[in-house]
């Protein structure tokens, strides 16, 4: 078992050691050195090999940073918030300023938080987690459901049944597995109240990623993303980014150990 | 398997960590997201009752806004502006560009404004100026309404009684 893994690294190791040996002109010496080192590699434990290539050790293993630039956020009108009067006090740190009463988000902060959220999404997808897209805005139902389909994950873009998470076994009449991540494209329902999924996911210890607009409360959301959640262009961009992050996460297969 | 549904106490990570430490949740039941959260915690820890910070939201103003205000006062709005189309500059943007070009020659703002306005009017890049002295000129609602009222024909007076008795 360990030998097969060592074989994979063999040519790499041999190349490395022959490179270091290139200073000496004696070829036979190099070859002996290479073969010695390869046998030692075989002794490396499986667990150590796993640690070397553990995705969690890398700051951006799936390359989610390349998925968007700040100009893309600007073009999709993500920096537009609502008006001064509807501002939720908890959103103040993320607001750049107010342009004649209209709040503008600080896209630098949004970009940073969006990167964190996408990275988290990719890792969860890599580990085989179930991801649920949630949105209650009827205008964006199709966008959200399509994104979930393309990502191979799930969406709930209709009216929220209250006991889906908290009493799932009764509602679905059987053993259920709850999602491992909930992505909220809008944390408000059409009645402008906080979406039930925010509180319920926090209750059931499910991490949430949510697009919080200037009139939403980000406190209960694990990875909030301050930004516009009303423009169709903005929602389309978010859906595309999350779908791409999930597909990136799924594309990297875990290292096979026989 | 134990769980904790107290969303207002701590956050999901602190609760699950507590469950694991106390032994209520077995290590094999550890949720998928736990290690990912530990490796990449959110920049701001989610907490239900966190008090909002005392930050004042500053209004966003640019030095060009004064010129823009004067422009709209003088010339009014051109009507429809497509915000999505970045190709063609609006009359106000053209005015601002010309203003910046001619800025060095003048010290007084008003003089500079008048000079730029004159140049642009000659080039006909701006709509005709809207001023209250000329109600017939211009495309503002008020002027159109007043001109319509003055032009309208006097309505023939209809006697409803006559209409009914004619039958």
From TrEMBL, chain A:
Keyword vocabulary terms for this entry: Mitochondrion, Ribonucleoprotein, Ribosomal protein
Subcellular location: Mitochondrion
Superkingdom: Eukaryota
One BP term from GO: translation
GO MF annotation terms: structural constituent of ribosome
Bilayer-spanning residue ranges: none
InterPro entries: Ribosomal_uS2, Ribosomal_uS2_bac/mit/plastid, Ribosomal_uS2_flav_dom_sf
Assigned GO CC terms: mitochondrial inner membrane; mitochondrial small ribosomal subunit
PANTHER family the record matches: 30S RIBOSOMAL PROTEIN S2 PROKARYOTIC AND ORGANELLAR (PTHR12534), SMALL RIBOSOMAL SUBUNIT PROTEIN US2M (PTHR12534:SF0)
Purpose: Required for mitoribosome formation and stability, and mitochondrial translation.
Family: Belongs to the universal ribosomal protein uS2 family.
Listed name of the protein: Small ribosomal subunit protein uS2m
